[in-house]
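Homework help board

Subject: predicted structure for assignment chain

Our instructor gave us this sequence and asked us to write out the predicted structure in token form, then describe one feature. I got the tokens but I'm not sure how to describe them. Can anyone check?
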Amino acid sequence: MHNFPSRLLEKAVNELAKLPGIGRKTALRMALHLLRNPVSEVEAFGTAVIRMRQEVIYCSRCRNISDKELCDICASPRREASIVCVVEDIRDVMAIENTAQYSGVYHVLGGIISPIDGIGPQDLNIDSLIVRASSGELKEIILALPTTIEGDTTNFYLFKKLSPLQITISMIARGISIGDELEHTDEVTLGRSILNRTPYQTIK
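My token output:
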């Protein structure tokens, strides 16, 4: 796609095309849409994106995204702070929250162990999970990672690290087909898989 009538339009298209799943034709369509909108609306859009990048932080306890040092889930007195659900990323927190079936808190690993992709335990938020588990304040850790080889590898690694701490370690039910990614699972199925979780030892 060449011959842009404006260098500014071309630059905008180039930047939009860097977004995941956005090709250059879609990027051009988005740029032209923004160009047709009132300047005030485009400024609001740009400001929202810039503020998100500059001001959103990670919860100091669970590593979920947050506007404050502690996210709303960790700070809520209505949550069961002694039950921690370990997930791959923030999208999984959102998926589980949408089920309205879980009242505990979370720990976001920020990925899963994947030697092929060069991701090892040291690249994930595992040390902070061990610190939380060692505090004596947790009674159960639920492993809610993808049902893939990488997910199973991460589950086993975490179990080996956590098992000496005398905390119940469970997994979301495998008998229910949850798919590879929690965010793509329907809410009823995902909710049941959490409620029907089983001890990790029985399904190694």
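Reply (TA_rk): Your tokens look well-formed. For the description, you could write something like this. Residues 7-55 form a domain with the Helicase, Ruva Protein; domain 3 fold (CATH 1.10.8.420). That's the kind of observation they're looking for.
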